[in-house]
Amino acid sequence: MSAPPVVEGFFDPATHTVTYLVSDPDTGQAAIIDPVLDYDAASARTSTASVDAVMRALRASGLTLAMVLETHAHADHMTAAEHLRRTEGVPIGIGEGITAVQSIFAPLFDAHDVTPDGVAFDRLHADGDTFALGNLTVEVIHTPGHTPACVSYRIGDALFVGDTLFMPDYGTARADFPGGDARTLYRSIQRLLRLPDKTRIFVGHDYLPDGRADFRFETTVGKQRAHNIHLGTNEEAFVAMREARDATLKAPQLILPSLQVNIRAGAAPPPDADGRRYLRLPLNAI
């Protein structure tokens, strides 16, 4: 049997996002999951500082980057996937449900260059797909609910769930984005909780609930089943709780910049006639 994957998390305090460097200890082949492209909203300037730190760690460990994996099209940060594809020559994979997300959001931004077929990405992964990362096998699990495109990646004893689950003391993802659904989210989570108790779960964000002092992003299936504050109920109670909670939440601060970049796999919109690239902010649209 292959050795379990080596996992290193990189926390971005600006967006509370965790990017993961996952590698096969036998071959040194590595994947980066959910890379962050830094964005300053006040100046509309981007930076690769966060993903550069991941790449420095990769090179220091003598690893070889084989792919970028996205758990979904994020609404709270821009992805650095396109930067890595351009600089490292690696493919970008995402769940095949990205086509539904592109269909929803391309018209919002009048993004005529975005076709709802996923061609901006290199690999569209369906539920149950498997592929190799060195000697390790990556299994794709479709986990919609937060968005229709969400997938989790099971690599050995490690499970990367994106925004579907958070740490047990914070709970679960919101389900009120277009295409999201609380009942679907509950059923996706139950599917993950049927995995072995010792399966390591790596979450996509941490928000320091109830004054917790330290950021955390690793837990287990068993701990989620026993202690997640949103999951000690049946489906109907969960849906009622989730929908009531979501009704009180504001839109993520970077939702408009992020989505129009992320449906393009991290590429900026094409340049206008003046040669500059612009992000659109549709007024009164969300």
Beginning-to-end CA distance, first to last residue: 49 Å
Along the chain, the helix and strand elements come as EEEEEHEEHEHEEEEEHEEHHH
Q: Kindly report the average pLDDT value.
A: 97
Largest sheet: 6 strands, mixed
**Total number of helical segments?**
7
Structural class: alpha/beta
**Low-pLDDT ranges:** none
Strand order, main sheet: write it out. 1-2-3-6-8-9
Beta-strand proportion:
15-25%
Rg measurement, Å? 18 Å
Helix share bin: 10-25%
Q: Give the overall shape.
A: globular
How many DSSP E strands?
15
Structural notes for this entry:
By secondary structure, the chain is α/β, with parallel strands linked by helices. It is built from 7 helices and 15 strands. The strands form 3 sheets. Strands 1-2-3-6-8-9 form a 6-stranded mixed sheet, covered by helices on one side. A 6-stranded mixed sheet has the order 10-11-12-13-14-15. A 3-stranded antiparallel sheet has the order 5-4-7. A hairpin with a 4-residue loop joins strand 4 and strand 5. Helix 4 packs across helix 6 (235-246). The protein starts with 5 loop residues before the first strand and ends in a 24-residue tail after the last helix. The mean pLDDT is 97.
